């Protein structure tokens, strides 16, 4: 295929498939706080965290990793300032010690942190200001979880870059389309992606097994296996759900993310791995299915945006469905029909923040993707003009992307209002 497209797709995978510790929204706050603390040069006496509504929504109910049971924006910001390592980016809290937790609890009791809602900004925006005496520092993140757009020390800008969504990615996402994604998955040199995908499976399988064997959240993954049985379809649903059980509820194990989300990273990879084992697929076929799944999900999120009222488990599961179809030997048309069938079914699932029930939404979305493949394999599917379904999968993805990006804006606002009510 075209050399530029090949190299750009490879870089997109490398840019998106990175490790993260815990839910990426509280981690983004901790990262911003760690950057501001670096500038301040000492522990802050006061912190003000200003966030877009989607950040508040995704931090409100999720346990901050390494804390045991602590939640919230204040916890994320103070802990990042106290013990965060900004050089680790989305693993900023990996080196947290017991004394850091004790200091964080102490500062929480002193109420040194204030939270404010940012309105009229991007869905992913964080401004953290901190001060000690007359010394001040500020860090601003926008459009992507580690995309620093401004740093200030004592009111003077020490770093800035243009605040545009495109500036959050080093790669050219305009090149993404389903035909080229399919061609890339079929022809990519395995040595170019093997290490990356091996890490994705190793990290995500480890946390999934943790979620299956220990008590986290509502234990959705373990419940599926206990009551539905241990066949391939249930394992494909249970493993990413169990990983989410653990990740949303304080587990300190890292995951490999996709589209800025650990839940999406597990959803695009683990069902594909389960079906690859079940079908005795060779390693090359498994890797190609994973490439297809990952890029198909990234393409959908490029249409939707990083954060919205549209549940990311749906786009990730749609990618996984494409990978599952590929493993079964499905051609381009079957893979495209699988994606369309999935979107036509569960795209109405809303995101009401990161929390325990994300695991159940993952399980439901993967179930829909599996059914979508079986329908496509039997030449059955939803047709052009039925709801938001269009003439082909490419147009259908744009249709549902527009619905999630534009149509659900007011839904997003109303969800936040309801969540913030006492």
What proportion of the residues is helical, as a percent range?
A: 55-70%
* CATH-derived topology of the largest domain: 2-methylcitrate dehydratase PrpD
Assign an overall shape.
globular
| Beta-strand residue fraction | 5-15%
Strand line-up of the largest beta sheet: 3-2-4-5-6-7
Q: Structural class, judged by helices and strands?
A: alpha+beta
> What is the name of the CATH superfamily of the largest domain?
2-methylcitrate dehydratase PrpD
Extract low-pLDDT stretches.
Answer: none
Order of helices and strands: HEHEHHHEEEEEHHHHEHHHHHHH
Count of domain modules = 2
CATH hierarchy class name of the largest domain: Mainly Alpha
Characterize the main sheet: 6 strands, mixed
Gyration radius over CA? 21 Å
Could you give the distance between the termini? 55 Å
Question: Residue-averaged pLDDT, rounded?
Answer: 95
Count of separate DSSP helical elements: 16
CATH structural architecture of the largest domain: Orthogonal Bundle
User: What is the tally of beta strands?
Assistant: 8
Give an overview in words.
This protein has 422 residues and is α+β, with helices and mostly antiparallel strands. It folds into 2 domains: 19-168, 60s Ribosomal Protein L30, Chain: A (2-Layer Sandwich), CATH 3.30.1330; 173-420, 2-methylcitrate dehydratase PrpD (Orthogonal Bundle). It has helices at 3-16, 24-40, 53-59, 73-83, 98-109, 178-187, 190-213, 220-228, 232-247, 262-278, 283-304, 312-327, 332-346, 358-377, 393-407, 409-420; strands at residues 19-21, 46-52, 113-118, 125-132, 135-142, 148-153, 156-160, 254-256. Strands 3-2-4-5-6-7 form a 6-stranded mixed sheet. The protein is globular and about 70 Å long.
């Amino acid at each position: 295929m075209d050399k530029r497209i090949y190299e750009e797709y490879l870089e997109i995978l490398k840019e998106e498939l990175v490790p993260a510790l815990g839910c990426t929204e509280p981690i983004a706050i901790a990262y911003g706080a760690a950057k501001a603390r670096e500038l301040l040069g000492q522990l802050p006496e006061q912190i003000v965290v200003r966030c877009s509504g989607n950040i508040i929504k995704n931090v409100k109910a999720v346990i901050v990793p390494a804390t045991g049971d602590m939640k919230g924006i204040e916890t994320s910001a103070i802990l990042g300032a106290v013990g965060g390592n900004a050089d680790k980016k989305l693993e900023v809290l990996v080196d947290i010690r017991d004394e850091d937790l004790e200091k964080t609890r102490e500062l929480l009791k002193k109420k040194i942190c204030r939270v404010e809602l940012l309105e009229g900004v991007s869905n992913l925006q964080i401004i953290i200001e901190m001060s000690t005496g007359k010394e001040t520092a500020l860090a601003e993140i926008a459009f992507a979880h580690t995309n620093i757009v401004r740093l200030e020390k004592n009111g003077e800008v020490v770093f800035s870059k243009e605040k545009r969504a495109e500036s959050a990615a080093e790669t050219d996402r305009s090149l993404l389309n389903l035909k080229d994604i399919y061609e890339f998955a079929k022809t990519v040199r395995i040595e170019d992606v093997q290490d990356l995908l091996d890490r994705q499976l190793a990290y995500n399988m480890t946390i999934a097994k943790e979620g299956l064997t220990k008590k986290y959240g509502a234990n959705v993954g373990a419940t599926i296996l206990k009551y539905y049985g241990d066949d391939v379809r249930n394992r494909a649903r249970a493993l990413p759900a169990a990983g989410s059980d653990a990740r949303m509820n304080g587990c300190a194990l890292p995951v490999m993310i996709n589209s800025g989300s650990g839940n999406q990273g597990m959803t695009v990879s683990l069902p594909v791995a389960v079906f690859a084992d079940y079908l005795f697929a060779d390693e090359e076929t498994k890797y190609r299915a994973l490439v297809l799944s990952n890029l198909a999900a990234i393409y959908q999120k490029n249409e939707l945006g990083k954060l919205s009222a549209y549940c990311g488990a749906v786009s990730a599961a749609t990618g996984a469905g494409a990978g599952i179809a590929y493993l079964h030997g499905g051609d381009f048309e079957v893979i495209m029909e699988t994606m369309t069938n999935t979107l036509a079914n569960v795209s109405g699932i809303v995101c009401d923040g990161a929390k325990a029930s994300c695991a159940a939404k993952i399980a439901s979305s993967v179930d829909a993707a599996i059914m979508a493949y079986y329908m496509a394999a039997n030449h059955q599917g939803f047709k052009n003009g039925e709801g938001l379904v269009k003439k082909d999968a490419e147009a259908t993805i744009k249709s549902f992307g527009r619905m999630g990006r534009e149509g659900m804006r007011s839904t997003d606002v109303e969800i936040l209002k309801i969540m913030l009510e006492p």
